[in-house]
């Protein structure tokens, strides 16, 4: 169990229980992918965002030091046996570094598990939707081949509806975040459990969280958190200690994946539609203006007084957008601060001091 | 229509400019060579013409505002469509390379860094954004774009970079998304997707150009583009000859027209002339490196601000770098262009650049080059500004060494940011590598 008022199963326990029931595991790299499609083949998607604090020596044998630690750590984690439980590895295409990782896994590293790259188009046009639906179909065929199973459209739709229900509750958790009696860390433990829990388990958990008695009015400084992943999670404790409450986020692992329900009856188009209609995300081709409006809208809705951009070093998609996002936020009276981290290093005092100074400014 | 921009354009681009550039060419032809001819062949006779051709291209851009529609495009964009519609086409990557060779890139990219752009971002992008913000450029003046066209077949970086430009210039951005080819072949749905995007781009381009796309003109441009690419490939393949008539350092300089003027008839004439000169060198037994002892491959972008240094350093030891995966990229797809089935062949051509293909494909390309060009080793430039080109190099180097017995060096640098270039360290690593090669 993880800390907090809710009984959140750990990643290890979840995987063990799933395997004991005869299920299989798909290790999935960031960011967007069709969960329902994996579940239709009995594969539980377990996401690999790094993880932090691994021995990075192995990745140095394949990747240059200017590749981000999410990608480097995933490779080291694979080498250290961390992905041994996985039956397949899915590498969605989000940036040049993940593209490179997918490619060297297929061409050089060649893990024992089959590796499936998955390309996410960079737009929301009909052609993008059609391509992504075809990409889902190609993944379907690949999974059918390695698992020896198949799934009817009805079965797929059932899996999709289950994921949609979980995602609707995830969105509700985010919407009601300020009223939930959860600390920053407890809240993110809960919502990040979506990275590995089966949708139905997460749904039960989310309902339990939403049924908790409302919190007393919070006197913490309301802030938005933007970036890729809030690691190390100690960041969230530090924010609480400094008197800040993360009232909403634009994190790639959380708030950028609040996918709306689909509308069509074709399961492949529906999965594609959901991914493309998610909140703005630089890795999916949204413009800087769209991201800015999204951040401003979130801040207005939640009363956030500033934005902490918390990014992993060498993350090009994020770094390109930052100057114009920060300028745009400043123009509407929303100050921001940028913090760069390496997943293998503890949160530095320098970073904490900068966040503290920022909170003093917006308090 | 205001006649002044048109008059200004014609006067400067067709009358005054060419006269000045001809004089400059005449002067350049009489200037003593700047590179060390004790170890290197005298410069190519065509070099002053290259400079003139490229200068004319930038001159046309300088006076394009108000007269011609301007598109800023990535180096892998389907330029044939734009040329057929009469756009002036500007390549920020080429401009970045010019800034790099002119050693002004750091000053210009600092403008972007001062505006908040991280030094971890691509140095071409920083140079370009810096130029857009400050107006600084060694080519006189950059025209403002009416359109931005980014094709993801060289990297995802261009997508993020062009979105920044779109915000600054407030002009339409067309993104042509070319799914990465992990395996041997692109999937049919990926090719269909690219073709559809090409077709969808046309109405947007026509609206901005103010005219309809003429399929006959498009076919003509496609033919010219194909012919120029074929000639470029032929020139590169002449380097299979011993001694190699030109080095990759010559290729880096001579590649400008095939990148930024692909689809123009004068580019075909230019490369036909270069091929003739290269053949003359072969006939006379002239090698780019005097006393060629060893032959190498170059992988990745050039180090623009140290071309001469690297060329002379290696030539002093009788080492000729004769082939490059980078310069080859602008020729190897020529056979795919089919003017009789232009739309489908364009989709295939633009999905298959080496940078849009897997790490295994690049290794296979290097292996083939080792055989075909009789190579003794390889230098893999680990370019911190180009992740898609650089990721995979560590394994590629290891396999070249282990499986082919070819010595290979990973050289850490950056294509445009010379602050990253540690000259002493590079010299030491190169010296150790040359020792391994036995020269």
Which key phrases capture this entry?
heterodimer, A: 363 residues, alpha/beta, Rossmann fold, 4-stranded parallel β-sheet, 14 helices, 48% helix, B: 439 residues, globular
Task: Describe the overall structure.
The complex is a heterodimer of chains A (363) and B (439). Chain A is α/β, with parallel strands linked by helices. Chain A has a domain at 11-151: Rossmann fold (3-Layer(aba) Sandwich). In chain A, 48% of the residues lie in helices and 13% in strands. Chain A has a four-stranded parallel beta sheet with strand order 2-1-3-4, sandwiched between helices. Chain A is globular and about 60 Å long. Chain A starts with 10 loop residues before the first helix and ends with a helix. Chain B is an alpha/beta fold and 439 residues long. Chain B has one domain (3-437). In chain B, 55% of the residues lie in helices and 9% in strands. Chain B has 19 helices and eight strands. Chain B has helices at residues 3-30, 47-62, 79-84, 92-101, 105-114, 123-134, 157-169, 188-209, 215-237, 248-254, 256-260, 265-284, 307-316, 325-328, 342-351, 359-372, 387-390, 393-404, 423-437, and strands at residues 70-73, 88-90, 147-151, 173-176, 294-299, 319-324, 377-383, 408-413. Chain B has a four-stranded parallel beta sheet with strand order 2-1-3-4, with helices on both faces. Chain B has a four-stranded parallel beta sheet with strand order 6-5-7-8, with helices on both faces. In chain B, α5 crosses α6. The longest helix of chain B is centred in the first third of the chain and has 28 residues, at 3-30. Chain B is globular and about 65 Å long. Chains A and B meet through α5, α6 and α13 of A and α7, α8, α16, α17 and α18 of B.
């Amino acid at each position: 169990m993880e800390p907090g008022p809710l009984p959140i199963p750990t990643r290890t326990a979840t995987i063990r229980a799933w395997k004991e029931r005869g299920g299989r595991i798909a290790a999935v790299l960031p960011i967007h992918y069709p969960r329902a499609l994996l579940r239709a083949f009995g594969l539980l998607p377990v996401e690999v965002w790094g993880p932090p604090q691994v021995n990075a020596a192995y990745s140095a044998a394949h990747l240059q030091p200017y590749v981000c630690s999410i990608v480097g750590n995933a490779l080291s984690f694979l080498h250290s046996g961390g992905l041994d439980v996985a039956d397949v590895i899915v590498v969605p295409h989000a940036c040049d570094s993940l593209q490179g990782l997918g490619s060297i896994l297929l061409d050089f590293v060649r893990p024992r598990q089959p590796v499936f790259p998955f390309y996410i188009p960079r737009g929301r046009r009909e052609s993008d939707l059609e391509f992504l639906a075809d990409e889902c179909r190609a993944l379907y065929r690949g999974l059918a081949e390695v698992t020896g199973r198949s799934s009817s459209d009805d079965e797929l739709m059932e899996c999709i509806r289950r994921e949609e229900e979980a995602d609707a509750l995830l969105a509700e958790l985010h919407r009601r975040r300020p009223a939930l009696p959860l600390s920053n860390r407890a809240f993110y433990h809960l919502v990040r459990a979506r990275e590995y829990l089966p949708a139905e388990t997460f749904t039960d958990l989310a309902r339990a969280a939403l049924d908790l008695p409302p919190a007393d009015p919070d006197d913490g400084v309301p802030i938005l958190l933007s970036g890729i992943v809030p690691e190390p999670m100690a960041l969230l404790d530090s924010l609480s200690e400094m008197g800040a409450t993360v009232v909403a986020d634009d994190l790639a692992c959380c708030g950028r994946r609040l996918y709306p329900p689909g509308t069509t009856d074709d399961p492949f188009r529906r999965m594609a539609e959901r991914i493309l209609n998610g909140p703005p995300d630089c890795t999916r081709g949204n413009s800087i203006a769209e991201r800015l409006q999204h951040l401003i809208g979130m801040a207005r809705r939640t009363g956030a007084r500033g934005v902490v951009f918390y990014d992993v070093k060498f993350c090009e998609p994020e770094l390109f957008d930052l100057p114009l996002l920060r300028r745009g936020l400043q123009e509407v009276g929303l100050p921001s601060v940028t913090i760069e981290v390496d997943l293998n290093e503890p949160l530095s005092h320098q970073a904490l001091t900068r966040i503290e100074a920022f909170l003093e400014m917006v308090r | 229509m205001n006649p002044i921009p048109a008059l200004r354009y014609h006067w400067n681009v067709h009358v005054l400019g060419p006269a000045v550039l001809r004089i400059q060419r005449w002067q350049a032809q009489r200037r003593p060579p700047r590179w060390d001819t004790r170890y290197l062949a005298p410069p190519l006779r065509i070099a002053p013409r290259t400079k003139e051709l490229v200068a004319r291209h930038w001159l046309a851009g300088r006076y394009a505002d108000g007269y011609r529609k301007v598109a800023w495009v990535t180096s892998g964009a389907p330029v044939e469509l734009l040329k057929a519609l009469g756009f002036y086409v500007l390549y920020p990557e080429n401009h970045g390379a010019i800034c790099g060779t002119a050693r002004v890139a750091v000053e210009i990219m600092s403008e972007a860094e001062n505006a908040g752009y991280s030094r971890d971002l691509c140095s071409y992008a920083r140079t370009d954004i810096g130029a857009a913000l400050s107006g600084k450029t060694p080519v006189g003046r950059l025209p403002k774009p009416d359109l931005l066209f980014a094709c993801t077949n060289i990297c995802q970086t261009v997508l993020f970079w062009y979105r920044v430009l779109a915000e600054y210039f407030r002009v339409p951005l067309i993104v042509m998304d070319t799914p990465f080819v992990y395996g041997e072949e692109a999937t049919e749905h990926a090719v269909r997707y690219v073709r559809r995007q090409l077709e969808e781009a046309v109405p947007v381009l026509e609206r901005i150009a103010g005219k309809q796309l003429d399929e006959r003109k498009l076919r003509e441009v496609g033919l010219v583009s194909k012919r120029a690419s074929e000639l470029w490939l032929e020139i590169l393949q002449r380097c299979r000859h011993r001694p190699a008539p030109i080095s990759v350092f010559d290729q880096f300089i001579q590649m400008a027209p095939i990148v930024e003027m692909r689809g123009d008839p004068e580019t075909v004439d230019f490369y036909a002339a270069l091929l003739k000169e290269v053949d003359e060198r072969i006939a006379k037994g002239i090698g780019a490196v005097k006393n060629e002892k060893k032959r190498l491959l170059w992988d990745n972008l050039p180090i623009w601000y140290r071309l001469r240094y690297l060329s002379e350093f290696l030539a002093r030891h009788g080492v000729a770098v004769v082939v490059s995966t980078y310069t080859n990229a602008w020729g190897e797809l020529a056979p795919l262009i089919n003017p009789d089935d232009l739309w489908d062949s364009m989709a295939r051509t633009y999905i298959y650049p080496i940078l849009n293909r897997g790490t295994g494909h690049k290794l296979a390309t290097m292996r083939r080059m080792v055989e075909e060009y009789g190579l003794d080793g390889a230098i893999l430039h680990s370019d911190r500004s180009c992740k898609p080109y650089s990721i995979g190099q560590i394994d590629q180097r290891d396999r070249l060494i282990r499986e082919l017995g070819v010595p290979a060096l990973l050289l850490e640098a950056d294509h445009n940011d010379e602050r990253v270039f540690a000259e002493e360290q590079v010299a030491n690593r190169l010296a150790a590598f040359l020792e391994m090669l036995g020269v």
